[in-house]
Amino acid sequence: MTDQPEHGQAGAAGRRDMLPSAVDPTVFDEAFLRQLERLTLVTRKAVHGGMKGLRRSVKRGQSVEFTDYRDYALGDDLRALDWNLYARLERLFIKLFIEEEDVTVHILLDASASMDGGAPDKLMFGKRAAAALAYVGLASYDRVNLAVLQGRAARRFPPVRGTGRIFQVLADLSAVRASPGPTDLLSAARHYAAQLTQRGPLILISDLFDENAERAISELAGTRCDVAVLHTLSTDELDPPLEGDLRLVDRETAAGVDITADIVTLDAYRQRLSDWQASLERASAKRRVAYVAMPTTTPLSDLVFAELRRRRVVAA
Amino acid sequence: MGMLAPLALLGLLSVPLIIAFYMLRLRRQQQQVSSTYLWQHLVRDVEANAPWQRLRRSLLLLLQLALAVILAVLVARPFSERPAALAHDLVLVMDASASMAATDEFPTRLDAAKRAAQSAISGVPAGGRVSIIAAAETAQLVANEATDRGRIQRAIDSIEQSIGPVNLDDAMRLAGKLAERTLGAQILVVTDDAGARTPDLRVSVPVKVVTVGRERHNQAIAALAVRATPDGLRRSVFISVANYSDQEATRRLQVLADGSPVTARDLLLRPLSRADVVIDELPAGTRTVEARLAQPGDEPMAGPVDRLALDDAAWAVVPPDRPRFVLLVGEGNVYLQNALSLLPNVELYGTTPQDYAATAADPKFASYDLVVFDAFLPPTLPDTAVLALAPPRTSLLGEVRGPLEEVYLGQLPPDEPLLRGVDLTRLHILGNNDRFRTQDMALPDWARAIIPGGDGPLLYSGLRDGQPTAVFAFDVRNSDLPLQIAWPILISNLAGELLGGALATRDPLAPSSPVELPLPTGSVGMRVTLPDGSVQELLPGATGAASVTFVDTRQLGVYRAEPMPDPLATVSPSPMATPSAQTAPSATPGVETGQAEPSLFAVDLFAPDESNIRPGDGSRLARLGTESGSGPMEQGTARDELWPLVAMLALGFLLIEWLVYERDGARRLLGGVRRLRPRRAGLSRRGGQA
Asked: Which residue ranges make up each domain of chain B?
């Protein structure tokens, strides 16, 4: 597997007829591929060519974009001295420049048992969102690291670069299945954070149904990546169509809860859900993590071009 | 307060059952969800606020428990008690006569009487028995010792308005008999107490009267008659309109002949008075005459509102203008023959005294409308109008005192209709002689002198046993009368009076009067068309019956009876050399018959006691009973059931339960609508950004 971009290849639409068999057509169907095409058109406008990615780096390097001054220190490059400023202030200052370099986009997909369900299915939505985000990264010549959180670990797929690798991404995502047992989100997040070597945008796609969800977010924020959390919930989790006396069974843990689904109970649930989302958003904001509540009914285009762009997860 | 069915309270045992089912929750459906993370938190919150949350969630349970309690109470039939106002055994007499159709109560007095009766019945003690009599032309027992309140109410509601006068005698007599069955019974009469006549009887139980009616304003057609003019050629209508109000009133009197307007006149009616109207312009060939009271012209009716419409119309049947058959019995009197044959619409037949017996024995003899005996009298006078000239002997026509030798003409009565247009100033009459008789006759009690003589009349006329009769005391050939112009005029006037009785309209029938309809030959029954257009077919009760009886005269108006031909009979026309006797004479006065022609008869409400709708206070009826009855009046307590209130309460709880239970559905609907809005907003933002 190479991380070199592959040029001259047709976009996803051109390869529709030649879809690899490893790509699940029920997840990445024709409608999705058409949406990817639209993404292709938009993102190509933003790509100016060249090997380097177009992300800004916090490193200050040798590029043409000036950003700031600092005092001259022994050993600095004299070519960076600002003589005009010396003439005015009779002090030596070094010009600082932004270095544009490659960026690694980390996409973490929660594949716990709780993600397997809902209408539309959360895992399928997560896969599509991951594919779309991966494609945006690939189109920007970023390196894309895709990982799946299951059990207590994060399973990483080989990193890819270039739009020609999109089908690899689709095939990898197609192979993802929901974990049969419980998933410890905190442990899985820690596992990935420990292996992380290159910083960059990190997007967690999860339903966050975990006691330690906030801690997992904190753990990821601690990697000093630009973390964004896509909180994915299905419509029947947002507004449960429940009625009567029921025993609710957890898909992950098989734990049961007896409820009487009457008006009062459902009202209380909705309030609880709202409070929980608000709590997650506050916790995320504290750690400078972008929190995006994303029902599974959200159209892909809205996801990429509205919500994520608005929250600066995706560059303009 | 008590319960009529206290055992129904056993239904309260359903309350613990409902609670038990609710608490046990035996069947709980399992449902897999992606995560119970939030639900667990929720349950913990609920358990933290357990008492209050349980209470809120139990709203439906509380509603169901309340419904169970209410239904158990409902079935137990709670009631409240109060002292009863009426006896345990009650006979209710409901006046349903024509005056009860007055509209001074809403909508009529009869409806107000039913409401008053329903209200009064609530004063009967629990378990009391009620018998109900509807008083109209006859007394009808509607319910006998009924105890079920629902049945009593239905019986009262079933009483129909009658169009005839009330027969309170029959009703009170029947009520008295029913009340006397039980000690301590009571009679309750609900009536407007209109009418002057008080029943002539006494009952041995107390009588209580509840009156309805507030006004007395009514105008009525009090009489309607059609009479032939003296010449018999024309018909006149006589109408009497009465104002029973104590105020002046203006009404328009409309006269219709066979449904077509003839004339209309505005009448100013003084209080408590009558106005008589004579209409002469009745078209020839008219069969029915209708008189109707309406409001004058386009202006609103002046004076008080006429509260009773039943008596604002009346009908009369006019016999058809058929030929009159006259039989002249004599040796031959050319003057009589000529004068009689010149009469319009008269067919003259003749026979000799010798052949009279045979002629009288012929069945066709009954068809003659007038028999003229010229100097002859049979042993038995016919049952028809008679004109006799110079009767030879005393008979029912009058006493013949002997021959009159000298004739003196007396003072002619000035307003005698038979002498209208008759100039007898040059009349000369010879006394009795060998050729022609002049008799000295005594004026009978039934007659009036037309041409008075010296002692006895020379010509008299009247109604003898209901038959028009005129008698000349002299043979007209014994005078110069036939040579004068007065002769045909006098004969015409006499014919009008003698034949005019037959031409007079038959009297209308009272409502609910039975009518006997003769069956013409060759018919198997009679088909009667009622004023409302409905038809009834009457078949004789026995083979060979000569008539059928029609009893359904409960509508005001003109009835039409037609024979139903026998489909098996062959019809052969017969020559009519003599008046046909195929038509049987009418068996009922007032009904004129004709072969194969429809018979008409009218039913009218000519009842001053009903048209005078001034309500009374009932005291005259109350005095028919006793103060205390034959025994102590059994008083008890009356019960008012509370089930309507309880039922309303149950319905209210059902409504609340429905609102509470279905609120979720309404919320989901609203939620679905709200969810559509963010999508539309998102699309619009994307369109803006693009």
From this structure: 2-27+34-80+644-679, 85-214+615-635, 219-319, 324-503, 515-565+585-602
